[in-house]
Amino acid sequence: MIRQIHVTAALLVCGMFAGSASAQEWGNKMFDKLEINFGNVARMAETTFKLKVTNPYVETIHVTNLSTSCGCISWLDQTPIAIPSRGEHELTIRLDTVRHVGEKHVRAFVTLSEPTKGLTSMVQIPVNGRIRDDFEVRPGSVTFGNVDQGQSTSKTITVNSTGASSWKLLSAKSDSVYVNTRLAPRSRSDGTMQYDITVDLLPDAPAGLFRERLVLTTNEAGNSTITLPIDAKIEPDIVVTDAHFGAVTQGKTKTVTVLIRSKKPTQLEKISHVIQQTAAKPNTSGLIQTGATDAVTVPTIDVENAMKVDFDHSNGTIHKVTLTLDPSKDVGSGLFDELYSVNIAGRSEPVSFHVNGRIAGDQGSSGNVSAAPTPESDR
Fold this sequence. Notes:
The chain has 3 domains: 117 residues, Immunoglobulin-like (Sandwich); 95 residues, Immunoglobulins (Immunoglobulin-like, Sandwich); 141 residues, Immunoglobulin-like (Sandwich), CATH 2.60.40. It has 1 helix and 25 strands. The protein is mainly beta. The strands form 6 sheets. Strands 1, 3, 5, 7, 8, 10, 12 and 13 form an 8-stranded mixed sheet that branches. Strands 9-15-14-11 form a 4-stranded mixed sheet, with no helix packed on it. A hairpin with a 4-residue loop joins β22 and β23.
């Protein structure tokens, strides 16, 4: 009898830990990567790694704490950070190549919370790398900063090695088709070898955050490659915000504004409704991944006839598009997700923006507490 009680207690404890582990999983699923490998890096190199955190839940998720197991790595972000439903945020972790050298096998931690349900999750991220003290790069990264889309730009860095006299830098390349590199020996004296590396960012690089790696290959046996980050923010000629209505009460109109910014004066010609989107609705209460077999596709409600779109026809660099939704019209209740296209004078390709929200009355997302925040697709 005593043995049976012990076995039962052990099973209960195991079940508690299993439930806790299951509850933690919702945080892991927000990250695009759950491991960081810096590889071989040069001393003095500005070495960072970006993690994209995406919120697939209805509720706003908060990053409440960022910590590490070693002073050789540090977060560049400040908490708290609120990530709204469907929102994204980049977290940046830095490897200290000034005060530290050698092999590093450490961990970074991200604490997430959903306060309305009292849920928390700590995401543990292994971080590995090797900082070489016989190899320096100045400046410590290939950072282009803000670059206008369609423009080309170049940066030059200098590599210094204090290794064996037979040491050579054989190549400096990037896997990106938008990057060209040129390698030139600079000097060799007193056991120090220097090379200049010029990195060209080509004009056809796409808009957005540009993050690639420069891979240096040496004639050393074994650890013959060293990596450096390449960073740029390529700014498009026109930037458009999306329209998020949030919750809309039936019978009450609501207005939101979309901003269209351009580097040169432009004129809006026409705004057209393109398509009514669809949403994935789960058959279960668990988190629905893309392509999950337990999700079915259901149409959202159509609000095109209830949406009034106004915009100015002036020639300028900032345009306001006013969207007014009148849910008193016969549109029903539930989610809506629309796509609109904007034609601009003298520009062959239109730009577009999304309009989404929910008209109150939808019972798709109840207040029931579950083991994870409500999937965004279940709104």
